[in-house]
Amino acid sequence: MKSIASAPGKIILAGEHFVVHGTKSILCSINMRVNVTAEFMSKKIIITSDICNVIIDDLSDNTINIIRPFICIIKKIFNKYNYVGGIKIIIKSDIPVGVGLGSSSACCVAVAASVSGLFGKITKKCIVELAKEGEKTIFENTSGADCTICTYGGIIEYDKKFGFKKINTNKKINLLVINSMTRHSTDLTVKKVMKFKHDNKKHFDLLCKKELLLIKKLKHSLINNNLNSIGTQMKKNQEYLRQIGVSNKTIDNLIRQVNYISYGAKITGAGDGGCIIVLIDKQNEDKLINSINENYKCFQIENERHGVTVNKQN
């Protein structure tokens, strides 16, 4: 028997970094997905993907960083069901890695759902908890927001303490993703924000208050499909991110360049490199794409309503 799970990537419309420190964030799933197929084997643990091919003898092998989140998830599931055999996992993804589109979270969610599916039905709440445990092996202070949106899909308002609420809108949001091709480290960027907070507590607290007001306005704008207002809140959020030091000259210049023809643009993900998202009318896409330096990668995405899915094949 095979258990096949699929989970979407994500973008953050507002609240990244601030959500870790007690504010809220708004995220939406996107029409790019990770697919994971799991099946039992007699002994070995085999994990295959576009970026790794790993065979280990048992789950005590924690030396390979790239698969550490998956080993954590698999171990928890095997322990729950007292399973001592092997497993083969095949990961296929159309989400670019390391650019703020939720590749790692989507992988954790899909692995949790796929492996659990071999043992029976599993709730989305359990999938999220398993995925978060895996993600913590990479980012110890994760808010859980990314794993939540990759599990439930749609557009959500997320609070680290109180969980999430769906934002009900059937409208498609047309976005361009532009990869700045600037390398970044999520771990280093998170540490940079922590240092900013420590050194500038009053300023950071003020920005958190402003961010909460922004989230409220953005939620209302999404429900009413007010693209001008959505773009305005995105621009404001980018300015707050710039103030806490997670933007850079390349990102700032790129955003200035696209703002003249779009509703608004901002970083998505950790920042200090990676991707920006641009809210734009379809009729202006080609004009904007043609204006972008050919050194950048640019592609179109839409928000996705569906979260993780699990199917079984005999």
**Poorly predicted spans:** none
Biggest sheet character: 8 strands, mixed
Shape assignment: globular
Ends distance: 4 Å
Q: Which class of secondary structure composition applies to the elements?
A: alpha+beta
Instruction: Spell the H/E element sequence.
Output: EEEEHEHHHEEEHHHHEEHEE
Number of H- or I-type helical stretches: 9
According to DSSP, the number of beta strands is 12
Q: Strand fraction band?
A: 25-35%
Mean pLDDT: 91
Rg, rounded, reads 20 Å
Percent of residues in helices: 25-40%
Q: What does the model show?
A:
Helix 1 packs parallel to helix 2 and helix 1 crosses helix 3. Helices cover 39% and strands 26% of the residues. It is globular and about 60 Å long. The chain is α+β, with helices and mostly antiparallel strands and 314 residues long. Strands 1, 2, 3, 4, 5, 6, 7 and 12 form an eight-stranded mixed sheet that branches. Strands 9-10-8-11 form a four-stranded antiparallel sheet.
Detail the topology: elements first, then pairings.
Blueprint: E1 2-14, E2 24-41, E3 45-48, E4 53-56, H1 68-81, E5 86-93, H2 103-117, H3 124-136, H4 145-152, E6 155-159, E7 163-166, E8 174-179, H5 186-199, H6 201-223, H7 227-243, H8 249-259, E9 264-267, E10 275-279, H9 285-291, E11 297-302, E12 309-313
